Amino acid sequence: MLAIGIVFLAELGDKSQLMALTFALKYRWWVVLSGIAVAAAGVHLISVGVGYFLGSALPTTAIALLAAVIFLAVGVWTLREHAGGAGDEGEEEPRLATRAAPFFVVSSAFLLAELGDRTMFATAALATDYDWLGVWIGSTVGMVAADALAIALGILLGRHLPEHAIGIGSGLLFLYFGALTGLGTVLATPLAAPLALLAPALAGTVLLVVRRRRAERPAAPPVPAER
What pLDDT was estimated at residue 226? Predict the structure, then answer.
């Protein structure tokens, strides 16, 4: 119960909740929740093992940089799907490719994001003083419960927003997560959060320019009907 309370409170307002909300806008809620549950169980099993058996830390810098690269890649991929606008006929094929393995995308992203996060260190600290099994179960339940709130909010937003706007917003958020994770790891400064806004701002500007140029292209001449 102590682990549930600590991890639940630590996750409120954390980047993992924003990630859960973003994934809930893109994938089905049960896929997102199951992916988070598997990732939470895995990362907290590692943390209690570190705290209870080893008492040492993981190479969190390399893991955080890898997570940043994955977030940036997912963001670019998502924006590429919706770069042409809501009415493009060629949009269906890449979208199906993105949805081919949503569970793997969610679980791997959360696993990498949570390795080295504050909740992992809190779980490792609890495991040094309490039973590791109880800490593992409690921390997993606490994280899933906190992220479930964000998933519920994502479902409500998804019902009132057009799919194209959701796709653009999701891509920009992933770019922000990637830039924030990378800058926070390298610079370790409070300026990382405002500086990370440059990534989605730049991507949004490029997206607007691309869509404007496509809109300015002359329409193809009509094909004359055969007599």
Answer: 56
Torsion sign (Cα): 176, 179, 185, 189: negative
pLDDT for 98 beyond 50: no
Asked if residue 93 has pLDDT above 60, the reply is: no
- SS3 readout for the chain: CHHHHHHHHHHCCCHHHHHHHHHHHHCCHHHHHHHHHHHHHHHHHHHHHHHHHHCCCCCHHHHHHHHHHHHHHHHHHHHHHCCCCCCCHHHHHHHHHHCCCHHHHHHHHHHHHHCCCHHHHHHHHHHCCCCHHHHHHHHHHHHHHHHHHHHHHHHHHHHHCCHHHHHHHHHHHHHHHHHHHHHHHHCCCCCHHHHHCHHHHHHHHHHHHHHHHHHHCCCCCCCCCCC
Identify which of 92, 94, 108 has the alpha carbon closest to the alpha carbon of residue 23: 108
Distance CA 190, CA 25 (A): 28
